[in-house]
From TrEMBL:
Organism ancestry: Bacteria, Pseudomonadati, Planctomycetota, Phycisphaerae, Sedimentisphaerales
GO molecular function annotation: anti-sigma factor antagonist activity
Organism expressing this protein natively: Limihaloglobus sulfuriphilus
Domain STAS: 35-118
Superkingdom classification of source: Bacteria
Listed name of the protein: Anti-sigma factor antagonist
Family the UniProt entry places it in: Belongs to the anti-sigma-factor antagonist family.
């Protein structure tokens, strides 16, 4: 499955759903809902989803986007899958730290590290 809506590009690689966020600012509710729904749609068909979300382009995000990530994580966990995040800017990483979300999410510096982690999941 390959899809793109301008804000997000989604493709599969070796049964891993790779999501590239193509937006510098994830602040508007409309954009956040679109990103969330695209990702949930991509993982919906997978029996045990393995998902990598790459934040390489993202410089700012709102608390609503954090809520969307929590919802995505819950959907992945419900199916006994795994979610990994990578390429998170320092200012966004601070938000994850302050909110203790760094304890909920598996966060990696580089996509290759995250992919290796996901590939090693059974």
């Amino acid at each position: 499955m390959n899809s793109s809506n301008g804000l997000v590009r989604i493709f599969n690689k070796d049964q891993i759903v790779i999501v590239s966020l193509n937006c510098k600012k994830l602040l508007e509710e409309e954009h956040i809902n679109s990103v969330r729904d695209s990702i949930l749609g991509a993982i919906g068909a997978a029996p045990v989803p393995k998902v990598l979300i790459d934040f390489d382009e993202v410089e700012f995000l709102s608390s609503a986007m954090l809520g969307a990530l929590i919802k995505i994580n819950a959907a992945v966990n419900e199916k006994k899958g795994k979610l990994a995040l990578c390429n998170i800017e320092d200012n966004i990483a601070q938000i994850f730290k302050i909110t203790a979300l760094e304890k909920i999410f598996d966060i990696y510096d580089e996509p290759e590290e995250a992919l290796t982690s996901l590939e090693n999941q059974s």
